Target: Elastase-1-like
Amino acid sequence: MMWLVTFLACIGLICAEEPFNHKVHNGRVIGGHDAKPNTWRWQVSMQYDSYNDNSYYHICGGSLIDAFHIMTAAHCIMSMDPSLYRVVVGEYNMYNYDGSEQFLRVERIVVHPGWNGDLGKGNDIAILRLADPVYDNGYVAIAELPYPGETLPHGFTCTITGWGLIDYMGNVPAILQEAPLDVVEHSVCSQYDWWGSVALETMVCAGGDGAISGCQGDSGGPLSCYTNGAWRVHGVVSYGPAGMCNQYKKPTVFTRVSSFLDWIFSVINSA
Model:
């Protein structure tokens, strides 16, 4: 089990992009395609300045959940110093400035109190409070959220979006990617030849066909599902398999947003 914990903590989707010998924006959802501009308007890019020299690079995705707050994954938090982060909303092409972007400083970071660094224990969720509010420039939208405790049926098709790696070699197309992922219900995802005991009921599994998946750099980003007449963020990208991210019976695993609504709103209201 200790090996599994190490495996989950450091490989695949799990880790935010650590700084290394070059600064590049991460690539795309594996098996995805370019999203249409101005479609997934609650998607954000979470960026980090590892040398504190105003040189930011993408590490994770996130979702805009009100004018001041971003929802992301707890494992994306590489430092509790908010000055090292910025959030970009209205982003589409990482390499171009299109005039749709807003670059926002982070004022406060709140990590779920149940997060202990072990992805198999869940609670992989965090909220960033922005120093200034997002304004409606026509390229942003506040994410709709699911109902408390809401679950999705097996085979329900959702969409993953992000700028995560296309493969383990690190190809890096700059445009926001999207791909369909079918939900794998907990009774299946928790089977021993799928994710076993590290798939909890507070998580959503989606994918596992061996072709389409999230990957490193997608972490923290949304799983958007059309339910009850609206696109809603049902999941926060949490973990996936080692090596190639798109492995058969190893779906992308998301923090289930409907399990954490009380905590999310308590953080927002405390501000």
Summary: Confidence is low (pLDDT under 50) at residues 1-28. Residues 261-270 form the longest helix (10 residues).
